[in-house]
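Are you able to produce any protein sequence you like plus the matching backbone structure tokens because I've never seen that pairing?
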Amino acid sequence: MDGREPFRTAVAYSILVRTLIRTHGRDSDFAARIGGDIKGYISLAIYIMAVGLSFVNSWISLALFFAVAMMWFIPDRRFEK
């Protein structure tokens, strides 16, 4: 696994969510539960920053990767029902 793998998975997740919303319809229950997908977009933005900052300091990049991992340990309450 190289350093770009988390970035690739974040992009793949974003594509998957958009495809599922398109498949189910924008007014479906699934789309309503996903909402704006703030957590997904924040993760993608942090990964982009981490890749850029890896050229400056690898420890900063690792800390950002760790922050995203910790963010996803918080349960996503959109689908618990």
Remarks:
- The chain is about 70% helix and 0% strand.
- The helical segments are 5-24, 29-34, 38-53, 58-73.
- The first helix runs from residue 5 to 24.
- The CA atoms of residues 46 and 73 lie 16 Å apart.
